[in-house]
């Protein structure tokens, strides 16, 4: 079990991090996609399994260029991976990275991007809709590729939240 002192030390470490990320200016004029259409496209991409949660009525499609610019300044991939496996210890592993990247993009000007979180049976990662295909982001190293339905830690997707 994490003691109060250990938890306080973790909070202090987080507080030492930069307060604001200087994200690139959002590109206005990005195409809009309705939530229902986004749902249908994602369902086509991931197949029949998995829960898809679309929170808003519409989103801005994010180009690969725009996402590359965002990832270039986002510090999520620089955080240390922590997996000590000790019962009661907090780890900072794949879901921590995916949640952190999603949180960093949950700010005005970026919150309406067709971007979110995904979980397979064994891994958490980020996804976004580029207007044509579902893209996968590995937030631990900023790797960005087309999502593909094939065996591995990214498939099958069990849950997506955009």
Describe the fold and architecture:
The protein has 162 residues and is α+β, with helices and mostly antiparallel strands. The chain has a single domain (31-161), classed as 2-Layer Sandwich (Beta Polymerase, domain 2). It has 4 helices and 8 strands; from the N terminus they run αβαββααβββββ. It has helices at residues 4-15, 35-46, 64-73, 94-104, and strands at residues 32-34, 51-53, 58-60, 115-120, 124-129, 134-138, 143-146, 157-161. The strands form 2 sheets. A 6-stranded mixed beta sheet has the order 2-8-4-5-6-7. Strands 1-3 form a two-stranded antiparallel ribbon. The longest helix has 12 residues, at 4-15. The two termini are 32 Å apart.
List the main descriptive attributes of the protein structure presented here:
alpha+beta, two-stranded antiparallel ribbon, Beta Polymerase, domain 2, six-stranded mixed β-sheet, 8 strands, globular, 162 residues
């Amino acid at each position: 079990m994490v003691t109060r002192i250990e938890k306080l030390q973790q909070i202090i470490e987080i507080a030492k991090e930069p307060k604001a990320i200087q994200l690139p200016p959002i590109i206005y004029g990005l195409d809009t996609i309705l939530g229902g259409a986004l749902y249908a496209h994602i369902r086509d991409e991931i197949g029949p399994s998995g829960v898809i949660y679309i929170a808003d009525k519409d989103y801005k499609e994010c180009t690969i260029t725009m996402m590359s610019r965002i990832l270039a300044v986002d510090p999520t991939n620089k955080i240390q991976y922590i997996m000590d496996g000790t019962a009661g210890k907090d780890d900072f592993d794949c879901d921590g990275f995916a949640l952190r990247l999603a949180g960093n993009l949950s700010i005005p000007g970026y919150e309406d991007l067709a971007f979110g979180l995904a979980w397979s049976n064994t891994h958490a990662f980020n996804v976004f809709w580029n207007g044509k295909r579902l893209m996968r982001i590995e937030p631990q190293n900023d790797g960005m590729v087309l999502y593909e339905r094939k065996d591995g830690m990214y498939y099958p997707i069990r849950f997506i939240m955009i």
